[in-house]
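Subgroup meeting minutes
Present: P.N., E.W., G.H.
Scribe: E.W.

1. P.N. recapped why we're keeping a running log of single-chain structure predictions: easier to compare across weeks, and new members can see raw inputs and outputs side by side.
2. G.H. added today's entry (630 aa).
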Amino acid sequence: MATGLTEPDAPPRPADAPSNAPRRGRWWLRLHLRHPVTIGILVGIGIFLLFAIVWIGARGYLAQRALTDAIPAAEQVKTAIGSGDLKAAGRAADALSRKTHQAATLTSDPVWLTAEAVPWIGPNLTAVRTAAAASDEVASHVVEPLVAAGAAVDLRALAIRNGRIDLAPLTAAQPAVAKAGKAFTAARASVATIETGALISPIAGGVDRLHDVLDRAAPEMDAIGNAVRLLPSMLGADGPRDYLLAAQNPAELRATGGLIGAVALVHADNGALTLQRQSAGTSIGPWSTPVADVPLNTVGLYGPLVGRYLQDANLTPDFPLAAATASRMWTTMYGGTIDGVVAVDPVVLSGLLKSTGPVTLPSGDRLTSSNAVKLLLSDVYQRYTDPAQQDAFFASAASAVFDRMSSGDVDAKKLVTALSDAGESRRVLIWSTHDDDQKILGQTTLAGSLPLSDLSTAGIGVYFNDATGAKMDYYLGTSVAAGSAVCRADGKPSTVVRVTLTNKAPADAGTTLPRYVTGGGTYGVRPGNIRTRVAVYGPAGGLLAATQSDGENYTTVAGVDRSRPVSLYTVELAPGESRTVTVQFLNDRQTSSDLSVVTTPTLPGDGTTPDVGAQNAVAPIVVQCSTVVK
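Output recorded in log:
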């Protein structure tokens, strides 16, 4: 007879066994016998979870490997494009696309998508899938089409040959480039939606790196799209165009880069470029009354000469206004129609000479990338005292370089690089009378518009105008620093801009430099001294709070230009002297302390030639709230 056990055939319980031992053994058996469905479900769930973990882990590992392997392919694409080997770029782009597509496929199956609903781990899986999909989108719908389009638009096709640029490949590439631009924008937007705060560190770090890569690539994507859209129309694909080419002289500063010392009329017709006329800036005007509409605020800040003298049309930093004024002056003088204005300076010329090689001038001078700035902005004034001779020398240099470029004897890769760098450093500015072209230009640094502000970033501008009446800015050193901090009870930031000017001319400049360079005291400036008017623009909608130097208030003209507060002040320096002036603004529309600062492109002041892509550095300032006006 069995006792204490429900199982009739159970073996006798050992004398030393705990009384509850059989109960533990019977628990599982009872549950199994009484609830077989529950046990099946639990086992099934366990098996599924184990499968899902293994499946997701394995596919996540493979996806990570694929994305890691894609990095060298991406580098190969970049290197091949940089060297002009478009076939190698195509092969690398194919490899890149295969790897990113593999990663996207591995992270988008039903098991992965289902697991994204699981708390904590779900957001990490979603982030990985989104990043992989964005990488695949960029590789397959941006890189590959652009490399394919690049094979058609060889850099050599952009060179002028026999006075003409072949526009057909550029026009043919427009649809592919437009699609690539949309795909890039979509991929970048999808990555921007990923919230990294709740992600584990490795995934958050990977998302941040991808975000940074796309942010750095965005300006290049914009440049490619803008170039392909703009060049055909601007070079006369839809009909002839006439452009005013304005040579700015930074030895006598104006807000957009330098006094307009010479101008030329360039005719473009279906890619064919011809230099039709050249004139010295002094041969155009002046007029007793303004020939162009100049806003009253601009006149109040920069005087009535803006609309009367070509050399003063760009006292305003608003290049579209300056260009429209210069265009009107040309047509008033010579008639005809101007389709746009392109402004350059000798630093741009030095960059172009890297693509053409040295050019021999009628004077016998050998113009090179290393001596162009010094020869055109300093040596010429030592050699010729007659302004007419100076103008003739400048005209001969412009013609010689234009003829060399028109001949096609140009390194196209270096040419494109020089023009791109010049645009980034604001040494090339372009304005068009055609609305479609100007709309595109307005989104770029080529437009030379007043600084833009939005809800997160304050746009700041620092501009320099010569007040010596001579060419002493060849020796002017400039330094700009800026910072912002939230110091007010309303949560709005205060912005501080610090501008330092230094006269780097030799101590005996007043007696050793030509009168044409020093001004000879004609405008009340002692020879050797440099007088500069500085215009500091604050964020749109903001207020000018203070202008100080050495802890004391500094004399300034306070104004407003297109809703931007302006501090306009004058600094005069003897050789070796330096002065720092600090300007404070109270921001109104921003809630963060982000800044975007643009400045007049200047020379180093020490006789050296800046690189064409070198931008005036803006140093950061750590703003102490105890020092700002609230």
